[in-house]
Amino acid sequence: MNNLLKRTLTGAVFITVVLGSVLLGPYTFTALFLLVNILGLIEFYTLLEKNGTRVQKFSGIFQGSFLMVIVFLHFVKSLPAGFLLIPPVMILFVFANELFLNRPHPFASIAYTVLGVIYISLSLSMFIAIPFFVPGNGGSYNSFILIGYFTILWTSDTAAYLVGSRFGKTRLLERISPKKSWEGVIGGIVCGLIAAYILSKYYPQFSTVQWFIIAIVLMISGIIGDLVESMFKRGIDIKDTGHILPGHGGILDRFDALIFSAPFVFAVIYLLSC
Q1: How far apart are CA 205 and CA 196, in angstroms?
Q2: Residue 35 clears pLDDT 60, i.e. is over it
Q3: Among 67, 100, 120, 188, which lies 20 to 30 A Cα-Cα from 223?
Q4: pLDDT tens-digit map of 137-179
Q5: Torsion over CA of 150, 152, 158 and 164, rounded to 10 degrees?
Q6: Cα–Cα distances in angstroms (integers) from residue 123 to residues 67, 249, 261, in the given order
Q7: Structural domains in the chain (count)
C-alpha cells in the first residue's frame, strides 16, 4: 500500500471516529479524548526517555487522566467545583514519589513529569469543557461547537498544506519547520475564516464576528502548537512522535495543534459566554 493511500485511509477513519464520538454525546467524546490523553502522555514520556530523561511515566498518566475525569464529572454529573482542587494537590505526590526512586536528577524527573500533565492533560481538560460553555445552552453538552472547532482546524490545515505546496516560497520558521511557508499560513487562515463565516450562518449562538475571533485564535495558536511539536522532535532528532496512525505518525503529531489551541479557544468561548 503506497503512502498516499495509507494516509487517505487513516485520515478517513480518523475523521469518522472523531466526529462520531462528538455526535454520540459527552461520554463517547470524553472517552476518546481520555484515550488520546493517555496515548499522548505515553508518547511524550517515551520520547523524553529516549533523550536520556527519566520520568515518572505511570504517575504522570494517572495524574493527567484523573484531572480529565474530574473535569468531565464536574460538567456532566454536577460534581461540586471544590473537587477541581484535588488534581493540583495530587501533583505534589509526584514530588513525594521521587524520594523513593533514588535517581541522580530528581528535579528533572519531577519537572518533565508535571510538564506532560500541564502540556497535554490540562489542555485536553479545557478542550472537553468547551462544549459546556456555549451561550444559551444552559451548561448542557453542545456538539456543534466541536464540529465547528474541527471544521475550522482541518480546513485551515488542509488549505495551508495545499497552498504551501503550490505557492510556498517564503519560509515561516525554517530552522524549526523547513516546509512551512507564509503563503501556506495565509491561505490556511483565509480558508479557515471562510469556514467560520459559513458556520455562523448555521450556528447563530455566536455572531459572525465572534466566529471570526474564535477561528483566528484557534488557527494562530494551532500553528504555534504545530511549530512547538516540530521543535520538540527536532530537539531529539526524530521524524514522528509515534507510529500509531499509519501515514500520519503518532498521537502528538496528529493532535499537536488541538492540544496547544484548546486553552486559548476555551478562554475565548468562556469570555464570550459571560
Answers
A1: 13
A2: yes
A3: 67
A4: 778 899 999 999 999 999 999 999 899 888 878 888 878 887 8
A5: -150
A6: 11, 21, 8
A7: 1
Distance CA 234, CA 1 (A): 28
Note whether 146 and 15 are within 8 A (CB): no
Helix, strand or coil for residue 179? Answer: strand
Displacement of CA 260 from its chain's centroid (Å): 5
Q: Do residues 176 and 227 lie in contact, with contact meaning Cβ atoms separated by under 8 Å?
A: yes
Whether pTM > 0.90 for this model: the answer is yes
C-alpha cell at 10: 487513516
pLDDT, tens only, 88-139: 999 999 999 999 888 888 999 999 999 999 999 999 999 999 999 887 777 8
Tell me the CB-side half-sphere exposure of residue 265, using CA atoms within 13 A.
34
Q: What is the distance between the terminal CA atoms of the chain, rounded to a whole angstrom? A: 51
- Cα-trace Rg, the chain: 19
Helical (H) or strand (E) element with 171 = strand 171-173
Match 484531572 to its residue by C-alpha cell.
67
Q: Which DSSP helix (H) or strand (E) runs through 177?
A: strand 177-181
Domain carrying residue 139: 3-273
Arithmetic mean of pLDDT, 9-15: 84
Residue with cell 480529565: 68
CA distance 208 to 219: 16
> Which grid cell sits at 252?
502528538
- Find the DSSP H helices in the chain: 3-24, 26-50, 57-76, 86-90, 92-98, 106-116, 123-129, 143-167, 182-202, 208-235, 251-273
